[in-house]
Specification:
The chain is an all-alpha fold. Among the domains are: about 60 residues, no CATH class; about 55 residues. Helices cover about 70% and strands about 0% of the residues. The protein has seven helices and no strands. Helix 2 crosses helix 3. It is globular and about 75 Å long.
Length: about 180
């Protein structure tokens, strides 16, 4: 539903959006695999330190990629507005430092399916914040997509709770029969 407008070829050079969508799908798979692996990996560092290490490494790699691809020639300090600076600071503090640290902590203490629901809810929060603080318009399609996402997250969470009530504990299977 969200990709529908982008699935058409553009007339300005024939770009194929399937390449970008493929990259998104592969990166989602790799992110999921890493998240599942982190549950069984030995953790010597705190979630905050783990998040900091990953962000510093990722930031350095993205800075290098930006320099190599020539992004710096399109960057002008004079074009940075207070609104964009405030948004950046919010994303760094709330989205990255607090949010990602909480995500790593949750991976260590909760079921992966529940933890993964943040990825569905975060865009809705971003759209609502953009509507409230940046004057962005909220379309009917966005509201429908948000409703579908919230319904899906509710389904994931309630299905796991129902399954936990129905299934007997593993210890019951280990008890000797009469």
């Amino acid at each position: 539903m969200l990709f529908w407008p982008a699935l058409h070829f553009s007339s300005d050079g024939g770009r194929n959006p399937a390449i970008g969508i493929s990259i998104l799908l592969v990166s989602t798979f790799v992110w999921s695999a890493g998240s599942l692996y982190s549950r069984v990996a030995k953790h010597a560092a705190s979630p905050f330190l783990t998040a900091a290490q990953q962000m510093i490494c990722g930031g350095i790699l993205l800075l290098f990629a930006g320099i190599v691809t020539g992004e710096l020639r399109h960057f002008y300090l004079s074009t940075i507005s207070m609104k964009s600076l405030g948004s950046f600071v919010y994303l760094v503090i709330i989205g990255a430092v607090i949010g990602y640290t909480a995500y790593i902590w949750l991976l260590r203490h909760c079921e992966p399916a529940k933890v993964a629901t943040y990825a569905y809810v975060n865009p809705i929060v971003a759209v609502l914040l953009g509507t409230l603080f940046a004057g962005e318009t909220l379309t009917k399609r966005t509201l429908i997509a948000a409703g579908l996402i919230i319904g899906s997250v509710a389904l994931v969470i309630t299905a796991q709770q129902l399954r936990a009530r129905v299934e007997p504990p593993i210890s019951a299977a280990l008890e000797p029969a009469d």
